[in-house]
Write a structure and sequence with these properties.
This protein is an alpha+beta fold. The protein has one domain (2-208): Ribonuclease Z/Hydroxyacylglutathione hydrolase-like (Metallo-beta-lactamase, Chain A, 4-Layer Sandwich), CATH 3.60.15.10. It contains seven helices and 13 strands. It has helices spanning 35-45, 59-62, 65-72, 84-87, 90-97, 168-179, 198-204, and strands at 2-8, 13-19, 25-29, 48-53, 76-77, 116-119, 122-128, 137-141, 146-150, 153-154, 157-158, 187-190, 196-197. It starts with a strand and ends in a 7-residue tail after the last helix.
Length: 211
């Protein structure tokens, strides 16, 4: 499995491209914007994108979803249904944060706890992790000890909870139950900033003390 990281928008959101090297199938995770960068990556790698995955529906993670799904003719999978209100307000979010126009859409499949998403032969377990948004999910590949966690956990920090329907205590519960339950050797890709491991964050992240 190959994972390409393409920071997009002024927020430098870690849009990623999961590529199953056995099948050449790929998924784009959290296409927030800067579609030309994604087009260039896809062309350079010669991969076949067959789905879009979303961790949550904030504008920097989902702003280019409608345009990309129409352009590639692929389904949108995720996030959890509780983020519908954010999808419906993408245009307003774009205006609020100066990220241009964005259109709402209807995911082809909502996700919930325990679902499985496949990218070629790679299998990702879905874990519902509300708190940053109510419909936030993460994707965990147990075979590769790898997780895409969106804005739940960062290297040295955690997701903000001051945006609509964010909740700090809910986020901490999600991290404790759904993220820190992963093996310490799991490498995770956050929505912003560098990758790290669960074990390293358990040891050094000040926001996780006492969890």
């Amino acid at each position: 499995m190959q994972v390409g990281i393409i920071p997009v928008t002024a927020f430098r959101q870690n849009c990623s491209v999961i590529h199953c090297e056995k099948t050449n199938k790929a998924a784009i995770v959290d296409p927030g914007g800067d579609l030309q960068l994604l087009r260039e990556y896809i062309a350079k790698e010669g991969i076949e994108v067959d789905k879009i995955l979303l961790t949550h529906a904030h504008i920097d993670h989902a702003g280019a979803t409608h345009e990309l799904m129409r352009e590639l003719g692929v389904p949108v999978i995720g996030p959890h249904r509780e983020d519908l209100f954010l999808i419906e307000t993408l245009a307003q979010q774009g205006a609020m944060f100066g990220l241009g126009t964005a259109q709402s859409f209807v995911p082809d499949r909502w996700l919930t706890q325990g679902d499985v998403v496949e990218v070629g032969e790679e299998r990702f377990e879905v874990r519902h992790c509300p708190g940053h948004t109510p419909g936030h999910v993460i994707f965990y590949n147990a075979a590769k000890y790898f997780a895409i966690v969106g804005d739940v956990l960062f290297d040295g920090s955690i997701g903000r909870t001051d945006l609509p329907r964010g909740d700090h205590s809910t986020l901490l519960a999600s991290i404790r139950e759904q993220v820190l339950s992963l093996p310490d050797e799991t490498t995770f890709l956050p929505g912003h900033g560098p990758t790290s491991t669960i074990g390293e964050q358990r040891r050094s992240n000040p926001y996780l003390r006492g969890l």
